[in-house]
Amino acid sequence: MTISYEIKTTENKPYTYKTPLIGVDDSGELSVEYSRRNSTHIKKLTLLNLVGRDERGSIISYEPLEQVNRFLMAHHIDGGLQESDQYSKALVHFFSFLIELQRLWDDEYDEDLYDELVDLPRPAWNSFPIRKSQRITYQYREALKNAVLNESNPERRIARTTATAYMNAVVKFYSFHIRNGYQFNNPPFEHEVLTIYYQAGGFSMKPYMSKAVHTTDLRLNFGRSKRNEGGALPSARRDLKPLTNKEWKELSSTGVNLSNANTVSPSFVAPNSVATITLEVTVVDSENGTSTDTVTYHVHDKISVTAGSNVTIVEGSNVSLLASTQNAASTVNYSWSILDDNGTGISTSDITDPSAQSPTLNIANVNVAGDIAIKVQVTANDGANSAKAILQVTIQDSHLRVDLGADYPMPPSQVTFLHANVSGGKPPYSFNWVDNTTAPLNSISIANPSFTSPSSANTLAYTVSVTDSLGNVAKDTIHITTMVQPLKIDAGANIIALEGGNVDLFALNTNGSVNAWSWTQIAGTNVTLTNANSNAPSFIAPNVAFPSIEELIFEVSGTPVSGKTVKDQVKVLVKSLPNISASANDVIAAPGDTVKLTGSVNDVDSSNPGTVDNLKWEQVLSIQSPSVGALSNAKVSGNQRTLTTTFTAPNVTYRTDYSFVLLQLVRGTLYKLLLS
Fold it and tell me: Which runs of E-coded beta strand occur in 468-613?
């Protein structure tokens, strides 16, 4: 596939450059902010791009010419200049010339015949052959000369001033890269120092003085153009023949004093009053041929004009201009024009009726504040008497500004308002918010829109453009970060359980919902978990040899809809039961009877008998079963296996149940046997 390339431009106006500030945020990531101070205003910035097209003309590649665009940006930022359009046009012309040379090289390239030791390399902007004449910069210089002096096609011919400006722009482009340390294999041009000699003034003892001019060998030297009433002179020369005698004399009676009357160009001082002066010149050549001619001068009073006092005004206002003329012998014509706009963008077209004596200057808006110079030219009807005056108008920029405040964080799912604080400019203002976030604004055309922050972590960027009634535009951007706490899983405090008992586990999630639960046992005797895929499973505690305690460890995993799985652990301490059991018989008694309660302790495993620390009977009191009084022989200490206590049955009106408990203290652990 054949690809053709061309240079296309991208125009930005007006454009404000803010210095980037690079830092490290709290998470250790690089972040970029832009300084709100010392911004550079650029009236117009034209950037260059290299565009590639296929055989059908479709664009298949589009990339900026970084080496050119850096030079153009530096011209504005480092030089503080408003315009670079001339440089952009020149570099478009230069790189188009380079692309054409590359195309011709590609057409002739043959991989089998090409010898890199003999043949020239493919032309490039940053690589130069050893010979000057083969370098792209010198080839471009020769092409410019031919386009000025030898081009027969008027549409392709360029002016001398344009060629000089293009060549100067190319020199400045390469000088910029040389100053910034770019290493070329061979220099793009050679520096030269030219010495100019000129006649010294009366303050110097020397007849001539000299001045050193630093330049390059890429400079273009053209002779002055010859013009005749707007048309080009023919190539034939009409050299003057030397004259032997010349004589000027006055025919009128004014009595002017002619200086150098026997030269080609004499002079005289006009009288201080109105007069008509007629001069006659007689020329005698070397063959005594003569020729006589006369010329008449009309002397009028000198016209003077004033344009008034200098004015200071804010953009968006009008200035009433007024020219006052003195010594005008006849009707005069007025011509107002902008002599120097000083980068404000004000032009003569902003003056209503510039041929009037008192027109109006309309100042809509300016690119930058500054002083502009307005010229008024006054010319008499005869065209021989004219005067001019300069008026300075200081235009103050209304300084339209908008400030969204500093960037800030906020919690999720919360309604928040943005505030565009506008200053300067001329009301009314219009607002336009750029909203490409996941949290849309309720309106993009008001000063204080609102939005609801997302439920997940995110960084939102909102940009507002404010336009005043003059067309001034101000922009600002704010970044808002949604701070979402990470999901937390809590399996609870450690649990103490008895062997053979039911154990309930429970996990709690905070800062988010859980889509899937999973419990896993990672230590201890294996047990069977019921509902292991929920947040509240259960299991039966395993048997543990008395009097030991076994530690079981369980891990719970909670997985959200999006994000990482979070885990926590809980310990279950399973205590063993003693290897003895207690028993007693229920008793039925009448009021006044002596009731005997006998409890005994038996070994569960006779081959491994247990040890009892003490036994004790206690009554379980309630509203339905009041106290029966003191129990006789209610406690015994030591490794006793039987305990009998007695009490007298109280008087009751109806059957009453009383409950008693046999307390066993086995190796520091208390166990109960309930008897009713």
Answer: 473-482, 488-490, 495-498, 502-504, 508-510, 516-523, 538-540, 549-559, 566-575, 580-584, 594-603
Look at the alpha carbons of 87, 93, 98, 99 in this order and tell me if their dihedral is positive or negative. positive
Separation of alpha carbons 643 and 637, rounded Å = 10
Task: Output the pLDDT for position 223.
Answer: 65
Q: Is the dihedral of CA 13, 19, 24, 26 positive or negative?
A: negative
Distance, CA of 171 to CA of 523 (rounded, Å): 79
Confidence of residue 236 (pLDDT cuts 50, 70, 90): very low
CB 665 within 8 A of CB 612: yes
DSSP codes, 447-489: SS-EEE--SS-EEEEEEEEEE-TT--EEEEEEEEEE--PPPEE
CB proximity list for 98: less than 8 A, separation 6 or greater: 123, 124, 125, 136, 140
User: Encoding tokens for residue 12?
Assistant: 């930005």
**Ranges 89-103, 183-197, 403-417, most confident:** 89-103
The pLDDT of residue 675? 47
Distances in Å between the alpha carbon of 552 and those of 179, 498, 500, 572?
74, 12, 14, 5
pLDDT at 53 over 90: yes
Q: What pLDDT sits at residue 5?
A: 93
State residue 17's pLDDT score: 80
Contact 291, 283 (CB under 8 A): yes
Residue 18's contacts (CB-CB under 8 Å, 6 or more residues apart) are 34, 35, 36, 39
Pairwise CA distance, residues 575 & 495, whole Å: 11
Q: What pLDDT does residue 676 have?
A: 45
Supply 343's token pair. Answer: 């980068």
Q: pLDDT of 123-179, one tens digit each?
A: 999 999 999 999 999 999 999 999 999 888 888 889 898 999 999 999 999 999 998
- Pairing assessment for the beta strands 311-314 and 386-396 based on DSSP bridges: parallel
Give the tokens for residue 600.
């005994």
Q: Is 46 helix (H, G, I), strand (E, B) or coil?
A: strand
C-alpha angle 475/480/481, rounded to 5°? 155
> pLDDT tens, 603-627?
666 666 767 778 888 888 777 778 8
Domains located in the chain, CATH noted: 4-179 (no CATH), 242-299 (2.60.40.10), 304-396 (2.60.40.10), 401-481 (2.60.40.10), 488-575 (2.60.40.10), 580-675 (2.60.40.2410)
DSSP code of residue 259: B
> What is residue 132's DSSP assignment?
G
Structure confidence at residue 400 (pLDDT): 83
Cβ-based neighbours of 337, under 8 Å, separated by 6 or more: 348, 351, 354, 374, 375, 377
pLDDT at 103: 93
Helix (H, G, I), strand (E, B) or coil at 68: helix
Neighbours of 52 (CB within 10 A): 14
> Distance between CA 128 and CA 120 in Å, rounded?
10
What are the phi and psi torsion angles at 299 (to 5°)?
-95, 120
CA atoms of 656 and 595, how far apart (whole Å) = 14
Q: What is the pTM of this model?
A: 0.36
| Residue count of the chain | 676
> What average pLDDT is seen over the chain?
82
Q: Taking each helix axis from N to C terminus, what angle separates 136-149 and 85-108, rounded to the nearest 10 degrees?
A: 110
